[in-house]
Amino acid sequence: MTTTVNRIVVVGAGFAGYETARGLSRVLRGDVLGGRTEIVLLNPTDYFLYLPLLPQVAAGILEPRRVTVSLQGTLPRVRLVLGEADHVDLAGRRVTYTDPEGGRGELAYDRLVLSVGSVNKLLPVPGVAEHAHGFRGMPEALYLRDHITRQIEMAAVTGDMAQRTARCTFVVVGAGYTGTEVAAQGKLFTDALVRGQRSWKSGARPRWLLLDVAPRVLPELDRHLSTTADRVLRRRGVEVRTGTSVKEATRDGVLLDDGEFIDTRTLVWCVGVRPDPLVSELGLTVERGRLLVTPQLGVPGHPEVFACGDAAAVPDLTRPGKYTPMTAQHASRQGRACARNVAASLGHGEARAYRHHDLGFVVDLGGTSAAANPLGIPLSGALAGAVTRGYHLGAMPGNRIRVAADWLLEAVLPRQAVQLGLVRSWSVPLDTASPELARVPGGPAKQREE
User: How many helices (H) and strands (E) does the chain have?
Assistant: First the structure.
């Protein structure tokens, strides 16, 4: 007697994909152990990346492995396949992919969950793709950490004041979550590096600029969080310039739209993200690059296909006519809802529409500073810092003790200011969807983390 095995393929292990796979492994535990269902997770890496703490990796607070959670270690009933999905045959129910060594593979499926996340959003600004650093994955964070350390070390020994000033100037474009936290953590990091340089000469000090075309920092959040973050940044010495954009980037600096040229060797691009291009290539209905789905996260016309996270345009039932924003909070909760609804399609439970009210937001500004509004209660200062770190520890699916230990060590010991030399600039191209840059030897084709 032949037993029919239902194969569920989850593409992408960002917030949405990870929670989908974890939820399915729990709900369908009996079927998986009994050999009636197989859960396959297709992802380029063997870890889930906890993106909100990535700025702390770049700033030398957390070690890289602290924010990477082993997929095999935390998803024991899920089969991991290392690879980058590049085509979905909806009619044939197959996903083709490229493995880390360039080999080709194919996965047949009975149920498909598309949770491929997002990639860097580039604007048509000359020189940005060639000279800016993105911030979407571990390679970018490690490279930026080395790069900042190198600039301070080289500035300390040069006798050329103009060169020292340029090396000590750091420009971050985009004052959303990522850009604000990178600038806040980066200023503390470079100040600590300077204090550790015995050969440092008086004169140039680390200068950080945070630019955005929006009228305020954190424009997508409420006024309290924006005002608190702005106040902390300015008090720390970060130059916040709203209503300002980059007109051109060069090897020697950036030209702003007001005509000012900033001499710098560091341009960090944090202007936002866009849905992974894979979903637009399916030939299905999209909403600004996101795959249009039902409130139950199903793809119209394809009952065997589901989508969630940044790649999906999920109707926001709390705001009729709108779609849920591309945030980790929504992606995680959509992943759990998706797991429940995929299981329901196989006869386990009932499908439910995704509905979620924001529980508030937290922004880590480095040290004991943060901005938070849990359940709508505005907080700032040390209390907000404690709430923010508590939230992250609770949200992380692993490594909590190690993260807490690193935070404790950071509070009592100086940071280790050394270059690791693990990642070269050409291996982390900013345009992660560019076929030309993706073929750079040793460089990742795409970074698909939510």
Answer: 13, 26
Query: Are residues 112 and 136 located together in one domain of the fold?
Result: no
CATH at residue 162 = 3.50.50.100
CATH number, domain with residue 285:
3.50.50.60
Q: Which residues of the chain have pLDDT under 70?
A: 1-3, 201-203, 431-450
Q: Which residue has the tokens 């498909």?
A: 112
Domain contains 109 = yes
User: Is residue 16 in a domain?
Assistant: yes
Helix axes 15-27, 328-345, angle to 10 degrees: 30
* 199-250 per-position pLDDT tens digit: 776 667 899 999 999 999 999 888 999 999 999 999 999 999 999 999 999 9
The pTM of the full predicted model, rounded to 2 decimals, is: 0.91
* Amino acid found at 266: T
- Claim to verify: residue 182 and residue 231 sit in the same structural domain: yes
Q: What was the pLDDT predicted at 376?
A: 86
Beta bridge partners of 255: 248, 261
Does residue 245 sit in helix, strand or coil?
Answer: coil
Number of domains in the chain: 2
Contact 291, 313 (CB under 8 A): yes
Q: Are 433 and 281 in contact (CB under 8 A)?
A: no
Sheet holding 302-307, edge to edge: 79-82, 37-43, 6-11, 111-114, 302-307, 298-299
Are 184 and 272 a contacting pair, CB within 8 Å?
no
3-state class of 127 per DSSP?
A: coil
Give the pLDDT score at 439.
33
Three-class DSSP category at 172: strand
Q: State both tokens at 279.
A: 């979903």
Nearest 5 degrees, angle CA 337-CA 17-CA 219? 85
Three-state DSSP class for residue 148: helix
- DSSP lists the bridge partners of residue 301 as none
Residue 306, in any domain of the structure = yes
Full residue range of the structural domain in which residue 336 is found: 6-44+83-120+274-345
pLDDT at 431: 67
